[in-house]
Design a protein that fits this description.
This protein is α+β, with helices and mostly antiparallel strands and 190 residues long. It contains eight helices and four strands. It has a four-stranded mixed sheet with strand order 1-3-2-4, covered by helices on one side. β2 and β3 form a beta hairpin. The termini are far apart. Bound molecules: zinc ion (ZN). The site of zinc ion has 6 residues, from α4, β4 and α5.
Length: 190
Amino acid sequence: MRFGDVYSQEFINKLNEFTGGHPITAEAEIPGNEVYVDIHQIAELMGVTISQLGDEDANLSGKLISKHEIGINHREAPVRQRFTVAHELGHILNGEHVANRQTDSSTYTITEKRNEVVANSFGAMLLMPQKLVRRYVKEYFDQHSNVEKNNLSPQEFENLIAEVAMQLNVSQQALKNRMSNLNMYRKVSE
Ligand SMILES: [Zn+2]
């Protein structure tokens, strides 16, 4: 899987703002495995170290310690940790140097809320590239020819989400949000 296979050139340029002497090209292979985005390897490519948060930060999912270091809460589910890494990388690319990812978002200021939206949207684009999402959804329908693409039952929809989320190694909720933002589905009432 090459960068150019799943990301736009514009997005690759954005990643390159932080890789220093190691520019990412569209032809370069994405390090890690061939199925989902290995976010830890991407962080490494961006010169960002990932460390484990201590007990005093047990209420945080993650924390931007500096623009070269991210702290992650290892008590959380692996899919959540992966999203947190992607999210914190978003803060770095947004020019922030310090940020906390709190489990309770109600205490954020307006600026923090705006930065959270930017970081979440970047994290989703990084972990769930549109092309990869569309590829796995297409494969799902190819393999389940009995499922009507434009008329899924609620159960069929959940099955699709579960399978594609597993392939992308993301949470089902994160995938639903991403697919909704990509206008890939719409609920219809009877
Ligand atoms: Zn954040």
